[in-house]
Design brief:
The chain has two helices and 23 strands. The protein is mainly beta. It folds into two domains: 235 residues, Galactose-binding domain-like (Jelly Rolls, Sandwich), CATH 2.60.120; 112 residues, Immunoglobulin-like.
Amino acid sequence: MPLTQVDQGLLSSTAQYTGFKNRIINGAMVIDQRNAGAAVTINSGAHTYTVDRWSGFGQTSDGVFTVQRSSVAPAGFINSLLTTVTTADASIGASQFYGLRQAIEGFNISDFGFGTATAQPITLSFWVRSSLTGTFSGSVTNGAYNRAYPFAYSVSAANTWEQKTVTVSGDTTGTWATDNSAGLYLYFDLGSGSSNKGTAGVWNAGGLVGVTGSVNLISTNGATFYITGVQLEKGSTATSFDYRPYGTELALCQRYYWQLSSSDKGGHVNGIIYQGWADTATSSIGIVQFPMTMRTSPTLSTSGTIGDYVFRAPQSQGISPACSAVPTLGTSGTNYVRIGASTSGTFTVGAGHYFSFSSNTTGYVGFSSEL
């Protein structure tokens, strides 16, 4: 049946709000697979993941801060990302920097046209609350970290939610990935030295995380900084926040990280990691299927305690040999991996069994293909 003029009008008026409008994943900070709201200490230059898709970075000495999911949020949101300075750095070195980052996959910014003559403007909007006031900053960079657009915004009142909007002109030069590698980085500067700050509102040939003269949160012990409702969209106008279904947001996160945990046993006494078989008298292998196709073949992280894991044979065999080492990664793909584990007992070669979390533990098995 053909569309009426009314139908066509309704379709055209809503078309701009369909699809993947917000290129930020977990901008409302609702997904936290790794930590379930627990605070993460940031005291390293390596990117440490907090709530899903958001990482913190700092220094191995000097300043220290924590990051965690919070229930303090503005109207329309239930969570935010809370940063708290626990050790101040009052004298930041020229090359030092502290901050928060989300990496956006190249596939998800390919329509921006960055690096071409038809590059489109993009608009960042977010809610912020801080115990400090003044001019704060951040930046947008390419994946190679050699093109940067520092931006500034003001926090007018302490401990009060304020919504901010920043429009970024399209970059007609530089190299911007449009594949499954890092296409764009969004930074929120928490304190950085002179070589990592520049002029607001212009593209720079180099890596910068903030604006010269902006507030260094890390310099004040006990200072707090909350953000939520982070949205990055194509165009020069900020639109309403893209509230995606929880299941959709979780699936988007699981392309980059997925975790099996003993705290999520689905009503079973012991959560099953895999159903495998004995390839030798002391080793086991099994297949773990991912709920989502991952960005790349993932790396494996575990709780690191052998007491968190146990082998369970079918009841007919009546044996449950102990685990003698944490699981290791075997053949890895984007849809499944093969995991190996060993026992201090004895298997019947070829016999099937379950590899599970043991009772009352905090064990986990995590798979990461983060950018």
